[in-house]
Amino acid sequence: MNQPQRRTHRIHYELKHRPVHVVRIEPQGSQFIRIVFGGEALYDFCSRGFDDHIKFIFQDVDSSETLMRDYTPRHFDPERQELSIEFALHGEGSACRWAQQARPGQTATIAGPRGSLLIAGDYDWYLLAGDATALPAIRRCVEELPTNSRIRVMLQMPEDYSADEWQAHPHIDLHLQHTDSALLEQLQTLPLPEGIGFVWAAGEKNSMAQIRKLIRQQTPFLSPNTRIAAYWRKGCPCFHEELQE
Questions:
Q1: Closest CA relative to residue 228, chosen from 215, 237, 217
Q2: Strand ranges of the sheet holding 73-77, from the earlier edge strand across to the other edge
Q3: Burial class (CB in 10 A: 0-12, 13-18, 19+), 169
Q4: Is the pTM of this model over 0.85?
Q5: Is 14 in a helix, a strand, or coil?
Q6: At which of 68, 83, 115 does a domain end?
Q7: Phi/psi of residue 140, each to 5°?
Q8: Do residues 18 and 55 both lie within one domain?
Q9: What does the alpha-carbon distance between residue 12 and residue 121 come to, in Å, rounded to a whole number?
Q10: Which residues belong to the signal peptide in this entry (predicted)?
């Protein structure tokens, strides 16, 4: 098969640190909480890529130590100057605790994004895979792609996760697993659609390294149109790495 032409390109932004405050809090079921931030410093905020990441800088609720974590800008309203971030309520992490106790008026700082990777909207199909940490980016991608896009979503989520949110997207080919090994096995056995596609995956580093290896072995012709990232690593609370060639 001929090598497909890369249809992505990156744009860069000036790195800025922006003081923000909590405007409102919007629970998103048992797995996530969406916090909407506002502030005059957001007047020129820009995020054009669905998997952009920003540094969320906050004070630990126990020690008051200044901490920093990576998050996806879920939505930005330029008219209201409001930025939404979805926090996964998946454990005892410092950012999780901060989000659970957040109240309107509480302050934090947003840094970035440094840039965006823009993805063509006319691929024959899209494969989006990952665990709970990837879900905000996957949701944003589905919302921003053309409505006639052929999209397969493959998720590794806890057993109590409800897939009801996907009922609003009947064109999505959804596959739900509860372990990283089950997700990898399904990726190995489920044939990809015909045509030239775009593959995106994010999650725990070791799991993503296995997915990257699988894609390179089984479909090397897709390498130019593949983006895989480690959003976290076991034992390392602040981690983000692109697993590229």
A1: 215
A2: 66-71, 54-59, 107-111, 17-28, 32-38, 82-88, 73-77
A3: middle
A4: yes
A5: coil
A6: 115
A7: -65, -40
A8: yes
A9: 20
A10: none
Alpha-helical regions (H) of the chain: 94-101, 135-144, 180-189, 205-218
- Asked whether residue 132 falls in the same domain as residue 220, the answer is yes
Residue-range definition of the domain harbouring residue 155: 121-242
> Residues near 119 by Cβ (< 8 Å), separated by ≥ 6?
7, 8, 49, 50, 141, 198
Q: Per-residue pLDDT tens for 147-200?
A: 899 999 999 998 888 888 888 887 899 999 999 999 999 999 988 888 889 999
Considering the domain architecture, whether residues 78 and 94 belong to the same structural domain is answered as yes
Nearest to 118 by CA among 235, 7, 231: 7
Residue carrying structure tokens 């800008």:
73
The answer for residues whose C-beta is within 8 angstroms of residue 41's C-beta and 6 or more apart is: 16, 18, 19, 20, 110
Residue 124 is given by DSSP the state S
- Mean pLDDT for the chain overall: 90
Kindly report the CATH number assigned to the domain that includes residue 95: 2.40.30.10
The answer to whether 156 touches 131, Cβ cutoff 8 Å, is yes
Distance CA 63, CA 50 (A): 33
Digit-coded pLDDT (tens) for 58-74: 999 999 999 999 999 99
- Residues 6 or more apart whose Cβ sits within 8 Å of residue 160: 30, 31
What phi and psi values does residue 205 have, to the nearest 5 degrees? -55, -50
pLDDT digits (tens, 9 = 90+) for 82-119: 999 999 886 668 999 999 999 999 999 999 999 999 99
CB atoms near residue 167 (< 10 Å)? 9
